[in-house]
Amino acid sequence: MSVVEGLTAETKRTVAGRFAGLRLGSGRPMIIAGPCSVESEEQIVAAARAVKAAGATALRGGAFKPRTSPRSFQGLGEEGLRLLAVARAETGLPVVTEVMDTAQIDLVAEYADVLQVGSRNMQNFALLKQVGRAGKPVLLKRGLSATLEEWLAAAEYILESGNDQVILCERGIRTFETSTRNTLDLSTAILARTRSGLPVIVDPSHAAGRRDLIEPLSLAALAAGMDGLMIEVHPDPDRALSDAAQQLNFEQFSRLMARLELLPASALESIDACREEIDRLDERILDLLLRRMAAARRVGQLKRGAGLPVLQEDREHALINRLAGLAGDELAGEEVREIWQAILAVSRRAQQALHA
Amino acid sequence: MSVVEGLTAETKRTVAGRFAGLRLGSGRPMIIAGPCSVESEEQIVAAARAVKAAGATALRGGAFKPRTSPRSFQGLGEEGLRLLAVARAETGLPVVTEVMDTAQIDLVAEYADVLQVGSRNMQNFALLKQVGRAGKPVLLKRGLSATLEEWLAAAEYILESGNDQVILCERGIRTFETSTRNTLDLSTAILARTRSGLPVIVDPSHAAGRRDLIEPLSLAALAAGMDGLMIEVHPDPDRALSDAAQQLNFEQFSRLMARLELLPASALESIDACREEIDRLDERILDLLLRRMAAARRVGQLKRGAGLPVLQEDREHALINRLAGLAGDELAGEEVREIWQAILAVSRRAQQALHA
Amino acid sequence: MSVVEGLTAETKRTVAGRFAGLRLGSGRPMIIAGPCSVESEEQIVAAARAVKAAGATALRGGAFKPRTSPRSFQGLGEEGLRLLAVARAETGLPVVTEVMDTAQIDLVAEYADVLQVGSRNMQNFALLKQVGRAGKPVLLKRGLSATLEEWLAAAEYILESGNDQVILCERGIRTFETSTRNTLDLSTAILARTRSGLPVIVDPSHAAGRRDLIEPLSLAALAAGMDGLMIEVHPDPDRALSDAAQQLNFEQFSRLMARLELLPASALESIDACREEIDRLDERILDLLLRRMAAARRVGQLKRGAGLPVLQEDREHALINRLAGLAGDELAGEEVREIWQAILAVSRRAQQALHA
Amino acid sequence: MSVVEGLTAETKRTVAGRFAGLRLGSGRPMIIAGPCSVESEEQIVAAARAVKAAGATALRGGAFKPRTSPRSFQGLGEEGLRLLAVARAETGLPVVTEVMDTAQIDLVAEYADVLQVGSRNMQNFALLKQVGRAGKPVLLKRGLSATLEEWLAAAEYILESGNDQVILCERGIRTFETSTRNTLDLSTAILARTRSGLPVIVDPSHAAGRRDLIEPLSLAALAAGMDGLMIEVHPDPDRALSDAAQQLNFEQFSRLMARLELLPASALESIDACREEIDRLDERILDLLLRRMAAARRVGQLKRGAGLPVLQEDREHALINRLAGLAGDELAGEEVREIWQAILAVSRRAQQALHA
Questions:
Q1: How far apart are CA B159 and CA B198, in angstroms?
Q2: C296 in the same domain as C226
Q3: Do A198 and A296 share a domain, yes or no?
Q4: Is the pLDDT of residue B10 over 70?
Q5: Which residue range(s) make up the domain with C284?
Q6: What residues in C contact A176, CB-CB < 8 Å?
Q7: Are residues C279 and C183 in the same domain?
Q8: Chain B within 8 Å of D178 (Cβ-Cβ)?
Q9: Is the same domain home to A94 and A207?
Q10: CA distances (Å), B306 to each of A265, B354, D316, in order?
């Protein structure tokens, strides 16, 4: 049995344990955000602050850049790593950055919290055999035309070296379609997660190669159960030294996080913004209450059919206690109770009307 | 300017108008469900009833089947069309079925509510030129290796014939990956919708070719804003005459609709099932209330910073009135008011605590 | 066992019998040449004459054109068919043209010698079921993303209708590569031929979509054993109503045929052109004579090792008689004898030198 | 202007100069043959001797193997390199072997004559930047889904490091077709050669992944003008530790070389084999003579039209002298003269017959 298959049954709790510090397995998606390339201290620190404020859980930024042409910007190298460490010190965000060669592993591991193996190196087997030895989590991007089997086999090279902290990242595959840079393959990302038991995140920036698709693809990825996203964010995308067309600016990233319901309330900058958010939440709560009422009426019908009484105090008690137990910092158990008493009162009357 | 581009600016209301009877543009996704092939009256009527009960909005079923090999089941032909009409009479569901040749258009249009042009015929230009003339909506599936441009150009053939009731359907493209039958290309589906202004639905059954991916891909498609889904459902998939591996049975379809929050309360068959649903809804309502409290506290902070009072009765009134206006059959305006008074009371106390 | 597999063992003689009039199975490749679209009588007659003079064995030309966009030139329709018949009358070349819909079969069959089913209709099963019934050979192009299995299964639809005169045509598949219009897949063309026993030709014009690749790809296809080529040739490619970038003009086609060693001597228009051709042939004959001498010397070595005499008159007689039997219209048996006596004399001396 | 574009105009002579010892640019294709992996001294020496005898110009064999799974045979490493050097000492064949990591460059360069960068490392930019520094020719395989542009850009990384001895190798790309391991893309190989001015060879073993396609694809590649082939040959393919299905045994390789007209006469092992070869050559010489006669008759026609005499002694002299000058070791100038006098005599009589 392969190592990857052996991991399949592992629980989310184990994931959480393995990736301490990255919030993986916490039930909340991991959001890795930052510029394609580290360009200057000002740029990377500004980006780190902005993505942290908008709810990102890790910072990305390339110091060693794999570029198709030798004439393209190749990254700042070790200086870039140093600047990433500065940005981490400023924000507390763990740093994810790429390592391109066995000779760079020690250096990159000195600065980074997660070592990324890029798409073009997914089958750089010498690198796969050694990258895990630094003892840090490894983010393994899927190759541009790698099959599921090959991707999992590449992960096994790392796992076999004794490091089980592997995060998989789907970033689009190569197809005949030219309206997007690559084609996001959610299906294989889902299967990779089921098959391996490893966390799988999605990179819509590289998959689409165009800003306008990042929001819908991010929504799709999280809805499909992916463990997180990797998003390119730059203070001024049009002036970026690489991947200009696909990077978001700070405001766009903030809006994306709001749409994903991951923007912290602290990032709402005006009373109006708060009220918009509250109005949006109220509409969604109302939707759910409508569905709740329909289900409650259905209970009423079924009870009447079975000759059972409407009020079942035990059930109501248990229900409220359970919810009160789930309430966290933002809402005391007593407050939960107060709100649900109103909800249950309305619901009970609806059932009684049926029996009348 | 091409016809397709001209449609881009059209509003959802127009879509709704054009597709009267299909609930498109209603804000609720169109769910087309049913077996791959019509096999018998018993089979198609049972399937129609089951998918209707679970919330489907249209019935699919193939009478003329495009099969790779001449040795495979080719469909019941006109008899299949007649059986689809029987199923429609039983359930009221509009019928979607494929037309494969110009010579069949009149016959199929006699029985069907929506004429489907299959992937393999996406560039059967003779068919495209004539299929719209029946005056019924046309569902145009994307070809297995069609680019976005080609798909939209195929739609134009139909639009040019004077029929603007075109629904696009993404059903997976051909790539090197072999763990799925095809690769669902959500990115292009999203762009097709933006570019054309036409409704776009997704067929995860053909895209994945395997049952276990239908739920996550359906969640993803709707999260990405697609207008609906086409799902293969069969009373006994293992005995289906075509596409056995990818069809859902009735229970699986019902579970899918529950996960999509599209299952009507009437489909909950026991008090226990209702309670599970209520518990699930309560948890999600609680999540949203926690986010609502965080936003309310943030309002409190900002008000304090600006020296404004906590209580702003106007705002509370307006808020409650707006929600009461949105309440529908399931919840009277008065009941909405009752619940939100509880919510606002809790929220107000939290803000006051900040000011204390 | 499928029909296609059943044909695998058929001999070339059977192919020749089945496709009477098309020179298939004659050992000489079938060359179908002509414009993408029939545009006028002048254009198609000029093209027919030019390709005939350069050695083409059939004329192509589209009357019904499958065009991606409804705004592109759609072909002259029946008028185009009539013009093709005029060109045939002028040149004697059999005519190959596309049929796009079941409703056109009778009309096209009235004018054409070979009915073409285009890539986009490779899985138009209604068409496949009926196109063979006209009793004329059918040229079935591979779909842009059809697998070998699907292509052969499509051929079976035609074979099953009782018509065994099916010619397969590989015309490039869709891949991620953008420097060519499609990617010529010679490997699958070769396998299609072995698997089906049907003749397989190659269309480098559509595969490459660019003039500069037509010659090397044609050379490659014939070297790989393909049964023929389909080449787009237009009097004035830059003014063509379709596929301008990939059509050859008459002179380019003539040069191509020369490179393929298929240009008739009658097409050499000056003494200089003839001499160039003779010089080229002489160089190749010399190359082969050098190899022949090396093999003859090797015989000498082996004979010496085995103690056998150099001269074996029986062998020389038999050899010359066999070649004299193969000589055709261009060289009498006596002349063959005269030339080979010179060759054998030189060869014998070389062997004797070894024994000296 | 990029380095690659700058090379476009270079002549074959320059190629020959750059790749001294590899016979590139000699007008004769480079044939690199040998096992997928070096497995033992016995195996690699046997393979080297067999491929040398059959006309190969270089020996391949993997010491460091890029394998999809960590559980597959990973190669003998340095021991494999040592064995390759033994095989070179035995046969004089230059050795081509893969280097997978920057840390291995010096070691591999110590033993190998050509350093191979494999498909999976085509965008291992750290390796590309350093592999050229060893001063040995570099064979750069195209990535499994690399575009032409990316392949040439990868070559530029090597050229930019100051090493212009780069050989490109097309080895099949990834498509949806499953009947072959990959899809040989001759079109892009041809364009790569034209665009870069670098020699391009083809690897049909990896492209097809099946023995039966190696011969037709090799014929096609050379007919299309490629500079050479890389072929996997193993003493006992069924027992090979890697790539069993695609390796040829010695006899199959020998037959392949015969079909390519590259088998030396010294490899013909019996008088019968020599005679088969001679018969085959005679048939081809006869074919060419028939074409020569047709051209000569055409000269006769044109001369008659222009009122010129048949015999033009100057032309005949010049022709024979030119060919006598091209004759090499195998045929003396005098012998060439003797044979062509016979050919010209026959030809002259044919022309005279026209004038009679």
A1: 11
A2: no
A3: no
A4: no
A5: 271-355
A6: 145, 174-176
A7: no
A8: yes
A9: yes
A10: 17, 14, 107
Locate tokens 């092992």: which residue? D269
- Helix (H) or strand (E) holding D58, with range, is strand D58-60
Residues C157, C158, C161, C164, CA torsion sign:
negative
Q: Is the pLDDT of residue D57 over 90?
A: yes
Angstrom distance (rounded) from CA D253 to CA D214: 10
SS3 D140: strand
Within-domain flag for D48: yes
**In whole angstroms, what is the distance from residue D189 CA to residue A50 CA?**
47
Task: Give the pLDDT confidence of D14-32 residue by residue, as tens digits.
Answer: 777 788 788 887 778 999 9
| Contact across the interface for A125 and D71, Cβ inside 8 Å | no
> Residue A211 in contact with residue A245, Cβ under 8 Å?
yes
Chain C neighbours (≥3 Cβ pairs under 8 A) are A, B, D
Question: Looking at the structure, do residues D47 and D150 belong to the same domain, yes or no?
Answer: yes
Contact C261, C285 (CB under 8 A): no
CB-CB under 8 Å, A175 with B173: yes
Query: With contacts defined as CB-CB under 8 Å, which chain C residues touch D260?
Result: none
DSSP-derived secondary structure letter, B246: G
Mutate to test the interface with A, among C176, C178, C185 (most CBs of A within 10 A): C176
The dihedral of CA D177, D183, D186, D187: what is its sign?
Answer: positive
Q: Is residue B102 part of a domain?
A: yes
Quote the number of domains for chain D.
Answer: 2
Domain endpoint, select from B263, B288, B308? B263
Confidence of residue D12 (pLDDT cuts 50, 70, 90): low
**Confidence band of C9 (pLDDT split at 50, 70, 90):** very low
CA distance D144 to chain C (A): 11
Q: Phi/psi at D156 (nearest 5 deg)?
A: -60, -35
A84 and A169 housed in the same domain: yes
Q: Are residues A236 and A156 in the same domain?
A: yes
**A141 token code pair:** 């991007």
* pLDDT mean over D207-232: 97
Q: Strand pairing partners for C58? A: C32
Measured between its terminal Cα atoms, the distance across chain A in Å is 63
Residue from D150, D237, D133 nearest D196 by CA: D150
Q: In this prediction, does ipTM exceed 0.90?
A: yes
CA distances from C75 to B103, B280, C67 (A): 21, 61, 9
List the CATH number of the domain containing A302: 1.20.59.10
pLDDT (tens digit per residue) in C13-37 = 577 778 878 888 777 899 999 999 9
Q: How many CA atoms lie within 13 A of C126 on its CB side?
A: 24
Residue type, A49: R
How distant is the Cα of D174 from the closest Cα of chain B, in angstroms?
A: 6
- Residue count of chain B, please give it: 356
A260 touches chain B (CB under 8 A): no
Nearest Cα to B173, choosing from C168, C209, A180? A180
* Residue D244 falls inside a structural domain: yes
B216 Cα to chain A: minimum distance (Å) = 4
The residue among A263, A298, A318 that closes a domain is A263
Please say whether the beta carbons of A268 and A71 come within 8 A. Answer: no
- Residue C82: inside a domain: yes
At B83, which CATH number? 3.20.20.70
Name residue A248's beta-bridge partners. A233
Say which residue the tokens 């005898």 belong to: D53
**Pair (D222, D345) in one structural domain:** no
Q: Quick count: other Cβ atoms within 10 Å of Cβ C172?
A: 25
> In chain D, whose CA is at the least distance from the CA of B183?
D176
Which residue do the tokens 């769910």 mark? B31
Nearest CA in chain C to D266: C298
Q: Residue A175 and residue C176: Cβ atoms within 8 Å?
A: yes
